Amino acid sequence: MPKKKTGARKKAEKQSERQRQIRTLRENINIAERPCNFSMECDKCGVRQKNRAFCYSCSAVQKLPICAHCGKQKCMKTSDCVIKHAGQHTTGMQMVGAICDICEAWVCHSRKCLSTHACECALLDAECKECERGVWEHAGRIFKCAFCESFLCEDDQFEHQASCQVLESDSSKCVSCNRHGQYSCMQCKICFCEDHVRRKGFTYKRNEPYPCPKCGHKTCESKTMSISTRKYDYGRQNEYTTKEVHYSEEYQRVTQGMSSFSLDANYDDEDYDDNDSEAEED
Question: pLDDT tens for residues 72-114?
């Protein structure tokens, strides 16, 4: 018989389980809810953009900057601040300690934020899959595709997600055999059957989606998504229209001269042939 757990042991196990859940929730937080990706409206020009240290349009500084790591606008009296301000709260430029080179947002002077934000910044590799622009090239927020989890800018997020569920193959069959692909990877745009989605010698966790054998991204059941296959358009699909080409006056003058010269040459050849035929008859 195993020993009975004491009350302190049960309490410690519950606390450790709760801490594990908090860590997983913190890691899996949506990128749109990250403080470095908050929506910000400039106090001077009124342009709505991503949380930044300086406005993307007019380079103005916000009156109440937001920390890119913890999301606070006011530093309290009791905090792990690098710059001590005992007995008073700090806001504005008195609260900030650095600017992140990755997300271009203020980081407060808390020791934890200054030491960990650069490594844990959510926009570390944030480059739009469609337009290949980073945080520095546009003012909008960064999002992730709901299917392939690729980074998208604010301008291309809806257009990309509308065309993301398209496979790279001509059918929805498994890439290793000819059976129906029950699981699909939206990053590789391929399907797998029940047998080939599992790898030999790999242990899978219960109640979790199978990872893709090719890239490791989690797969989803094909029946739960509106997946379509690649299509080809052969031939001319619409009425052919010629484009009007505008030439310069000099080019038109030269071409007209060449055409008149060729006509004169043809007339001379015909006259020469007529003279030869008359001479032969004589």
Answer: 898 887 778 888 887 788 888 888 999 999 999 999 999 999 9
Model-level pTM? 0.64
Q: Are 68 and 36 in contact (CB under 8 A)?
A: yes
- Over residues 245-257, the mean pLDDT reads 68
Share of the chain above pLDDT 90, in %: 12
Q: What is the DSSP string of 122-140?
A: TTTT---TTT---GGG-SS
CB-side neighbour CA atoms (13 Å) of 232: 6
Domain locations in the chain as residue ranges:
20-123, 125-160, 165-232
SS3 153: strand
Determine which helix (DSSP H) or strand (DSSP E) holds 5, and give its type and residue range.
Answer: none
In sequence order, the β-bridge partners of residue 220 are: 184
CA–CA dist 230, 235 (Å, integer): 17
DSSP 39-78: EEE-TTT--EEE--SB-TTT-PBPSS---TTT--SEE-SS
